[in-house]
Amino acid sequence: MENRLLDPEVRRLIAEFGARLVTEFGYDGVHLNAEMIPDGDGAYIATLQALCEALPPGTALSVAAHTLRPTERITVAPYPTGHWSDAYLRTVAEHSDQVVIMAYDSGLFLPSDYRAWMAYQVRASAQRWLRWTPAC
Length: 136
What we know:
Elements: H1 8-23, E1 29-32, H2 42-54, E2 60-65, H3 86-94, E3 98-101, H4 111-129
Parallel strand pairs: 1-2, 2-3
Helix pairs in contact: 1-2
């Protein structure tokens, strides 16, 4: 599949559209839900940079992110694919105001696996990014 974000013109159009949403249509910010971004994709980071530069000061840039790569066995079924490394997720976070992890998009069939997967994503996100440790 071709990565259209490699094209500077495509990135410029995305940035201009995001800015228009704020300046002409009155939105407070922009949420970018770009699916199937591979781990380490520099063109996606360049797109976030272009958006940041085009948006008026004080505008929120929110992005959807792939799930965290598991570091422990969580589910009975095989893990979903498409994870980002901690380093890449950190880079994405540095270029946005809010990161929403798409843990719901798991592909898991068993309810117990889904609950375990969601619990892992919440716990791992909090521990890695908020420096939170559970009290219990």
